Amino acid sequence: MGIEVRAPTDEEWPAICRVDGRAFGHHYSPQEIEDQRPLHDMSRFRIALEGTSIVSAAGSYALDVTLPGGASVPMGGVTWVSTAATHRRQGLMRRTVEAVHDDIDVRGEPIASLYASEGSIYEHLGYGVATVSSTVTIDRRSADVRVECRVPSGSVRYIEGDDVVPIISDLWERFRRRRAGECARTDLFQQYFFDRREKEQDGHTPAHYLHHRDGYACYRIEPNWTDDGPAHTLHLNELVTVNTEAEAALWQALLGVDLVATIKTRVLPIDSAVRYMFENPRVVKLTQARDGVWVNVRDIRIAFGARTYRTDDTIVVEVDGKRWRISGGPDGASVRSVRTRADLVTTHPGLSSLLYGGTLPTALVAGKRMTARSAEVLARADMFFPTTLAPHCQSFY
Length: 397
Hints:
10 helices, globular, alpha+beta
């Protein structure tokens, strides 16, 4: 029996949830299936069917992503990628994901991006690692804020109920323009995540929101009552700030939460300044650093032409046999196809890793994913592509 790849119907949404849950070890309750349906556009999904059984699936969200310099461009956030254990090694995942890519291309979205459940899969589909995801723990009981970093109390308050979504939505849009790799969020997504965080989850309390006029923090508490007293863990789910004053004020408020022994989070960028706020920087421990967002540039001309660059220069990059001249600087860029000699030669995943500015060409050369015409060209490229702030994404999709 042949396997058909096509867009699903609305009636097939519960079946997609069951297939995804089976693949990722999650059970979707009837309520979850109903609650998540408005977030997913079935025309952006593709399923592979053997008869009437879904044996592979993938989809995408319509997102806008920030590029270096603050420009925002459309992006397909690829998600829900899974293949049945009974149908592995048949190329079905590639077929379904490529069908999603075709849909992204038709929609004119110059970038596809995803989070990888396994690190060895997506380079074969044109994706390169573009951000770093880190896990940080802070010994709250020993965290003493340096005098220079302290701010007067009173600038942070708790918000709750109907006040939350309008406030955080405005702050999120201001914030996400400052970091390459971060995504816009619709009111629908913000409301969904708020409603979800209003409930206890995995033994954690419902979320609490701390608000500063230029930022907010969202956290849950994991209670831990020991024989020696309380040693709760504060799980920081979001930290959104548009300046250093807001960041310092929110950290002071977080450190003031009673009965907490440890603060744990996965939302800080790799270049976070938090360790420099404390008298003893060792209270901040980086417990894990791994690949974050993976990027697949679908339209090189648009994607690399929409961002800015740190130096004024022109670099010719050969990607899978085709050469692109990238001329840019702090004020903008232009990209066009050329036949002149290449300065850098790389694969599509290698080029995609450069888009957000968090990967040095030198690192790609060392990893045998790129070659440079000369040491001088490579040094210029290392100055040209990177951003001042490390790219980062707190949005999971």
